[in-house]
Amino acid sequence: MLPVLGAIAAAALIVQNDGAVFLRAGIILLVGVLLWAINRLVGGRGGG
Questions:
Q1: Distance CA 42, CA 29 (A)
Q2: Is residue 27 one of the residues assigned to a domain?
Q3: For residues 36 and 47, is the Cβ–Cβ distance under 8 A?
Q4: pLDDT at res. 15
Q5: Would you state the pLDDT for residue 46?
Q6: What is the model's pLDDT at position 27?
Q7: Long-range contacts formed by 3-12: CB under 8 A, 24+ apart
Q8: How many whole angstroms separate alpha carbon 31 and alpha carbon 48?
Q9: DSSP string of 9-43, one letter each residue
Q10: Domain that holds residue 30
Q11: What pLDDT tens digit does each residue of the chain (48 aa) get?
């Protein structure tokens, strides 16, 4: 029951955000993926 309430609370908070918040989050995720790809190409362990 508690995880369901947590998911509902998180969804309620997410829909209250502006589009700029989602844009920043997308940029941060893109930077993370690019850094992961560079690490993978350079010969890192790959993280899994």
A1: 20
A2: yes
A3: yes
A4: 87
A5: 58
A6: 95
A7: none
A8: 19
A9: HHHHHHTTS-HHHHHHHHHHHHHHHHHHHHHHHHT
A10: 18-48
A11: 889 999 999 999 888 888 898 899 999 999 999 999 999 999 877 555
- The pTM of the full predicted model, rounded to 2 decimals, is 0.60
The amino acid that residue 30 corresponds to is L
In the prediction, which pLDDT does 48 show? 58
The pair of three-digit structure tokens given for residue 11, joined into one six-digit string: 């969804």
Number of structural domains in the chain: 1
Contact present, 46 and 40 (Cβ < 8 Å): yes
Q: Tell me how far CA of residue 43 lies from CA of 21, 28, 34, 38, in angstroms.
A: 33, 23, 14, 9
